[in-house]
Amino acid sequence: VVQARVGQHAVLRLYKHQDEGAAAHHTAFTSVDLAGHGCFHAATLGLGGQLARDEIAVRLGGPDAECRLGAASLARGRQLLDATWRLSHDHRGGNSSQLFKSVADDMGHVVFQGAVNVAVDAQKTDAQQLCRHLLLSDQAAADTKPELEILADDVKCSHGATIGDLDPASLFYFQARGIGIDQAR
């Protein structure tokens, strides 16, 4: 568990590399409360564990607060890697972005749940969320659940999610240059 309060005009950066053993169960919770003009930037790389859940909750509790979350995950074998992020814009002028990318191979399973809540008084909020999953096998799985709850009128908010497999044209490109299919994948 990480709990932090970021003061006015302060910046907190959190970098995490999660690479537990193949049989490990990993759970993590990060809670951040941002004051006015405070910034929180986090980057996560999730690779290990049989079951791993990384939960982040951020409250943009002051005007013009900023939050940037980015993560990449690679699930292989029978791994289940879960990222759950919740952002609450409570004051005017907040700015946030969420970018989550994953690759699932074998019977790996990746989950992304991202929620953005914009309160009535949080006018001029700019909140962006993007999630992309790449599946490398027919048995790999990805679940994504982007959420926006906007109660303010003057905001710029967006979310997007894609789940797809390898592009055959990209694989052909590598093969045409003498790279075998396994290495290209």
Topology:
Blueprint: E1 2-6, E2 11-18, E3 25-34, E4 39-46, E5 51-60, E6 66-75, E7 80-89, E8 95-104, E9 109-118, E10 126-135, E11 141-150, E12 156-165, H1 168-176, H2 181-184
Parallel strand pairs: 1-3, 2-4, 3-5, 4-6, 5-7, 6-8, 7-9, 8-10, 9-11, 10-12
Describe the structure.
With 185 residues, this protein is mostly beta strands. Helices cover 7% and strands 60% of the residues. A six-stranded parallel sheet has the order 1-3-5-7-9-11, with no helix packed on it. The longest helix is centred in the last third of the chain and has 9 residues, at 168-176. The radius of gyration is 18 Å and the shape is globular.
Characteristics:
185 residues, mainly beta, six-stranded parallel beta sheet, 2 helices
Average pLDDT taken over every residue: 94
Q: How would a textbook summarize the main sheet?
A: 6 strands, parallel
Low-confidence stretches: none
Structural class: mainly beta
Helix-strand sequence:
EEEEEEEEEEEEHH
Based on CA atoms alone, the radius of gyration comes out at: 18 Å
TL;DR?
The chain has 185 residues and is mainly beta.
